[in-house]
């Protein structure tokens, strides 16, 4: 049984320290890549996947994001204002849960960037998510073909899609691509205040309810100014 999320949470509250000096006067989600801000790349993909309402959290230089998204309709944007607190990736979702409802929702980092293959990866996530067996479904990019990523990976993936977190000093073939579907119930009993969303990933894995879907296309890790140039080159090649 698949789902069709109509709501999404977009994380846009980070400081973007590794993206300096581009982020000295601009929040990282507003950094332009291939002609439009990172945030718009994400919101456009969500709109194409059938999302009607997106909650965008803000903290660093929030007014720029608020003004930029004010008139957007596809999807409509609601701001979760965190300018007076630091909540982390997990605490930010907990604060926004009343706006997201009771159904599974998309969760996307505002600085994630990928080029879809034949079909939308967000649509593929929705088709794959099975609420009977999953609480979290992560979009996973193969490390070998990702652009701008040189780490050891995040997870190994079993044939049925179940994820196994990388152990210390281990190298695994998949990195979390920054897009997921989450069931709100995974946050029952979650801590208040600041915490990392990876705590919820770990909880779902312990309960054997954390799964992954291999990204179809090319994922780009846009973490530094140099990575912006590499991403733009990949976009140009994809439309050539």
Summary of the model, kept short:
The chain is α/β, with parallel strands linked by helices. The protein is built from 6 helices and 13 strands. 27% of the residues lie in helices and 26% in strands.
Question: How would you describe this structure in keywords?
Answer:
single chain; 240 residues; two-stranded antiparallel ribbon; 13 strands; 27% helix
Global mean pLDDT = 92
Helix-strand pattern: EEEHEHEHEEHEEEEHEEH
Most strands sheet: 7 strands, mixed
Number of strands: 13
Specify Rg, calculated over alpha carbons: 17 Å
Count of individual helical segments: 6
Alpha-carbon distance between the termini? 38 Å
- Which percent band covers the strand fraction? 25-35%
List low-pLDDT spans: none
Outline type: globular
The helicity comes to: 25-40%
Going across the biggest sheet, name each strand in turn: 5-4-1-6-11-8-12
Structural class: alpha/beta
Describe the structure.
The chain has 6 helices and 13 strands. With 240 residues, the protein is of the alpha/beta class. The longest helix has 15 residues, at 225-239. 45% of the residues are buried.
